[in-house]
Amino acid sequence: MTTIKKLCLFAGASLIAFSTSAFAESTVRVTIAEYSKGTGPYFEEAAKAFEAANPDTKIQIEVVPWDNLQQKLTTDISAGANADLSIIGTRWLLDYVKEGIVAPLDEHITPDFKARFIDTFLSPSVMDGKVYGLPIAASARAMYYNKDIFAKAGVENPPATWADFKTAAEKIKALGGETYGFGLQGKEIETDVYFYYGMWSNGGEIVKDGKSGLDSQAAIDTAKLYKSFIDEGLTQPGVTSYSREDVQNLFKQGKVATVITAPFLSNQIKAEAPNLKYGVAPIPAGPSGDKGTYGVTDSIVLFENSKNKEAAWKFLDFLFTTEQRTKFDKVEGFLPVNAEEAKDPYFADNADLKVFTSLLPNARFAPVIPGWEDIAQTTSNAIQKIYLGQGDPEATLKEAAAKINETLK
Amino acid sequence: MQRATAPYILILPSFLLAAAIILWPLKEIVSLSLHDVNRFGMIRDFIGLEHFRVLFADPDFIAATWRTLVWTAAVVLGTLIVSVPIALILNEDFYGRGIARILIMLPWAISLTMTAIVWRWALNGESGMLNSALRGLGIIDTNIQWLAEASTAFPMQILIGILVSVPFTVTIFLGGLSSVPDDLYEAAATEGAGSWDQFRLITLPLLRPFINIAFVLNTIYVFNSFPIIWATTQGGPANSTDILVTYLYKVGFRIGRLGEAAAVSLIMFAILLIFTIIYVRLAMREAKA
User: Taking the CB of the first residue and of the last residue of chain A, which one, N or C, has fewer CB atoms within 10 A?
Assistant: First the structure.
């Protein structure tokens, strides 16, 4: 019965498609992922400003929660009812490019336009030498630590290596009470990424030479390391019931001393726990000094079947002016993608953001491979089993790697 | 107009409507399940039953199927067992009955997803209401991580399922009880029947059709119920609380294998259809007898 309901949605969506094509030629529909409460209002305001300057074009913003974005796009595209522009995760882009669903933007991109971007963030959206998307949101990951808890436990500096980190976590445990050193995510989106942080420090890679890196020694060592944190009571109990947001909340409540996450946590702390004394530090390094962080961009793409490509491009051009980018990244707490924007004192003098930008040279972006979500799911399932103690780390990871290699073929 | 054709012509509009919203999607789903489909629903080569073969080779799918049956049976039977006494009590005339009825019905007014999200917070291991209540009462002294493992998460999900199904079921039973004439009880009482006998020999048989309808409708709702499991665990950790709908959602919209997702939904459709047919048969046989 649920399926039937979904199919009715298909039918409904196609009806909407017919009705919108009857509108004036210059209506540009834009699907926006909701990053925070501020996302919708920002885009509505930007649309108004754009319409004021371009009276012949109407911008229609559709805000979708992140969790439903993939589902909405799939249904819309299969019914031919998709918008002209949409935000998508850059890690999904390959699937879209392969099916010829998104249009390359090169004919519109002038050298001047390209020069606006910080190259690190534009390059993930480039495939086969063509630009298929523009980085609408960029972020990286670093370790937030609670200065008060560290001071109480007698830990002076944020840990430079995983070994230091474990010692620090042991000292925090020795304080007694319900405070834990390592806030470890074990549930829902990016459970796999939380594991990769350690894996990269140990010198591992998600995919190497077309094969999964989950069966590498680095991955096995990381699994054992994380499991030892869990078994020795250095993480919050029951890690598999904590999503990223849940661990961030524990951090805000002062129940975990560290959490590895994106810059937007700074904005949240400012609003929700202004008295929390925290610092931002790089993710600890591995025994041979390897380091890594996760770099993420979301892209805004132009659909191949759009009938208003010119008008849509104009809107894109407008969104990526320094003024608009500065406004948006301030609202969301993302990293600046625009070189001029990065010079704005808000970003240039922000101690937290400086740490994030300093990590970018070591940032790993999601590899350009088909079936990223599939691989993420297999990885998350495997490490959840390990965290729960339901599988031997080595055997479980090898099994997952074999499954991923099938997907990669 | 001939008498024999008139009924068919009169039925035609509703038949066409039903066909448009049921048969057409069904045809589309069948076609999706038999073809290679890309993640945007574009149909490629015909591949026969390949999607079904892949599904039956997936241990997660098999586990989700069994779990769906356990989930449905536990929630439906649990709901019936809880609802009958509640309905009997609410049918008595007592001071404050109006308020008691409202309290029982109240969860119905809240969207299922919201109830589930509230429970997700309540079941949070470190800051959840349930743990702090149990600790306050001195029942436990360390927090229980309810949603960390299937062994605690799944029973809690079943309890939430029962909780949200009770209002609907109680409403049906109250309607049934109000149709039982009081003089039957009076007559039974004069003949010397105790309250247990009255319940067993009068209330239950007369309530039977209402229990039947509650059973069927609840089975269909619960079998297809998505929000409780999705909002609390998303079928995790490691697929250990997945039922068929959450499995379907992951395969279809997360991973983008729409062909396999279509096959799952056909299998779900078949299970419910078989259940309904068996049930209707039994009910009709009873009605004849």
Answer: C
